[in-house]
Design goal:
single chain, alpha/beta
């Protein structure tokens, strides 16, 4: 759900809000961190998910002409929420949060407060800043009622 949601939201402004649920590599997580679901791993496991040109960056992430925070920045100024599971090393909760924090300057251009890289929330302590929000839910790579309730709270706030 996460990768497709981020990509759709970045490409199509008809989406009033974007929620990234455990999107990992190709979603909200910074590819250059090389953690969990890396560019090489995702291209090996799911070679049909990305264009052929992306395959040359497996084990060469520093050569990427972009990183995922730039994809997230394309969603600004629309509301953006990024979720991770505390035990979901594959999706890289830290990398997903850093993607959100590094996208914050795009929101700040519109006058909205953003996250700094040191403001990662604790487990099950949702935080909203400006038009962005995040939480880290206890658990693995999945979507639970807890997540849906946070997304609905966020939507109620902005839509």
């Amino acid at each position: 759900m996460g990768k497709a949601a981020v990509w759709a939201g970045a490409r199509d402004t008809r989406f009033a809000m974007v929620v990234s649920n455990a999107s990992g590599c190709g979603g909200a997580a910074l590819s250059r961190r090389r953690f969990g679901e890396t560019v090489r791993r995702i291209n090996t496991a799911y070679p049909y998910w990305f264009c052929d040109a992306f395959h040359k960056y497996g084990d060469n992430e520093d050569l990427l002409p972009f990183d995922q925070h730039e994809l997230l920045a394309l969603i600004a100024p629309r509301p953006l929420y990024v979720e991770s599971g505390s035990e979901d090393r594959w999706s890289d909760p830290q990398g997903e949060f850093l993607g959100l924090a590094h996208a914050s300057p795009a929101y700040e251009l519109y006058g909205y407060e953003g996250f700094t890289t040191s403001e990662r929330p604790g487990v099950e302590q949702p935080v909203v800043k400006g038009r962005t929000g995040t939480h880290i839910r206890a658990g693995r790579h999945e979507i639970l009622l807890y997540d849906w309730l946070r997304y609905l709270d966020f939507a109620d706030r902005f839509l």
